Fold:
Amino acid sequence: MTLAFDNELDDHLPQIRARRFERIQSRSRPRAGNLLTPRQQTSLKSISTIMEYRRSSEHVFTEGDEAHFVYAVASGMVRVSRCSEAGRRQILIFMMPGDVFGFPDEGYYANSAKAVCDTALYRVPWSQFSELMRHEPDMQMSLFTRVAFDLRQAQKRIMVLGLQNVSQRLATFILDLMTHADFYDAQKRKLALPLSRFDLAEYLGTTPETVARVMAKLEKDNLIQRISPRLLEIRNEAGLERSLGGRRRALN
Amino acid sequence: MTLAFDNELDDHLPQIRARRFERIQSRSRPRAGNLLTPRQQTSLKSISTIMEYRRSSEHVFTEGDEAHFVYAVASGMVRVSRCSEAGRRQILIFMMPGDVFGFPDEGYYANSAKAVCDTALYRVPWSQFSELMRHEPDMQMSLFTRVAFDLRQAQKRIMVLGLQNVSQRLATFILDLMTHADFYDAQKRKLALPLSRFDLAEYLGTTPETVARVMAKLEKDNLIQRISPRLLEIRNEAGLERSLGGRRRALN
DNA sequence: CGTGTGATTGAAATGCTTCAATTATCGTGG
DNA sequence: CCACGATAATTGAAGCATTTCAATCACACG
Structure:
């Protein structure tokens, strides 16, 4: 009997899980963009400029730059990343339509942002944004809520990277993207991947080769089908969900 | 010539790195606890209760519980964790002396908190805390700053889990802990690990066995020496720093 | 002293990375 | 529209990293 390491038993897992899945993990979470009232959205749009970016465009901003603008995604997708000392890049989060990003950290951007596909952004000068906050306390609360939301997102990412193997991480990403009508056609079960395998790898904490192999594995298991590199057909959503749990290494 | 995947070149890495390391990654970052003014700290302490926890104690709180209190670490160390659907636990962050944690997420705790060793906490009722914020706008700002700080910490964790192998993750943790005078005696170069290999594994996203092996490897490389399972001697700090970079798999 | 727990070590198997080569896809110009 | 070149994506093969199951060792505590 190996009871060593059974430090596990000191928790009350079942109850926790039940409650947690009601509230925290539910996939149909509200996007943070929805946290702004219609009036706030109008105020913001009135002082915003629409900016167009293509995949080949320069960065929207780069870590270390002075932060003069805040952005909201109108369409497309933005990758927010940071580089390690060794010069390797990790994508921290993808910003989807409705998401707001680019808040200054002591006056500077902490991360880099770049469009992963053709993308339109609303750009708001930070000076005007903070002015707006001074007049509308609700707006200040919205900023706080947004940062709190980002924190929860980041914690979810830590869970994924800490507990799941690459196959499960990809499944998680696919299921995540499926909650966005911008990318998933629920009728036809077609999911558009607006990013390269390279970006995907940097998000999942792996290499493009492994992404390709794992993609092939999900296809072999008949969970998805690759129509083209950037277009998937979802064959078995429940199967994808089921693949998330379990251990990091299969039993045989 | 394989130029495929050389999407790398689209960045301005050197400059980024230089600037980043001045500000963002600097190890001597201020702990968030220092963000409270002395007066705020006094206000808080006047409405706080000191709570003592031992390693064998119940959780301080559990994910999904109604959130009635916020906590600050007086001494010891608290692990903040969350359980996956499969029931596996990931430690998101360790709270050190001076850190504040347990902010409600829509009235509930999003994570679980438990002492990893004998620990003393200041406990403040959330109702009084929010009352205090109503009177002292600075306090509100401090809360925001704290959440923003937690976000940056979480993002740093994503970098570690996404880019580093287990050996590098452990080195990162050791270097991190060394910045805390509570745990590191810089004179004698002795670092106290106030937690079990099990907790360490759940933090690093691996298993206790691998932690033990990696610990042995750092010792073989003469970077550290194990005095006892919970007490290390730091033999080569610069070597630890150097081990962080590089690829995930050694070149030969 | 046992006993139980935490920590380490062993051995086998699998996952992942790496380097290399091949195939597919996309954009562009003829 | 097709051909072409460049880039993206996939596949192969070898080797290292990590997990897993199992066994052993160390140590604190009754």
